[in-house]
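Subject: for your reference before the review

Hello V.,

The reviewers asked for a structural picture of the protein, and I figured it would be easier to keep everything in one thread rather than splitting it across files. Below is the amino acid sequence we used in the manuscript, unchanged from the supplementary table.
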Amino acid sequence: MTDTPSFIPSVIYKDQRAALAWLEKAFGFEPSEVLTDSNGNIAHAQMSFGDGVVMIGSEWPAWDWCKSPASSGGKNTQRIHVRIDRDIDAHCAKARAAGAVIAMEPADQFYGARTYMAVDPEGHHWTFAQSVANPSKEEQEKASGLKYQKPSSLG
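And here is what came back from the structure prediction:
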């Protein structure tokens, strides 16, 4: 039995060392694994936050598909959603002070979370959320105008 999560996203950076330092300072992530080659270059890195893990990858010249948003005109194909246990407004302030661009200020959402969105120095988008309420699905549908569907009915 392992305590490794079933999913571990990998986020690509041009400068892994700078990313590791910035993500620790801005978001409170902790470096949990850093492997280097004989020249001291980072071959693999992971950071943890709560029970979550994210790999901090690097661009590979041989792989054209493996790019930071900073190398691809700011394009993102993912946004990582991180749960915060408490004081999300202070978390946002810390990220802003570290240089994060706050793309969405903290706001309460219809599904019971208070969220904000931050953009890191290489252009990755991160959403942070703190649970602040526990509305029923009916309350969520009424507040949002959306409707929950059973996955089997999407077919």
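For the response letter, the relevant points are probably these. Strands lie at 10-13, 30-36, 42-49, 52-58, 80-83, 101-108, 113-119, 125-131. The first strand starts at residue 10 and ends at 13.

Happy to draft the paragraph if you're swamped.

O.
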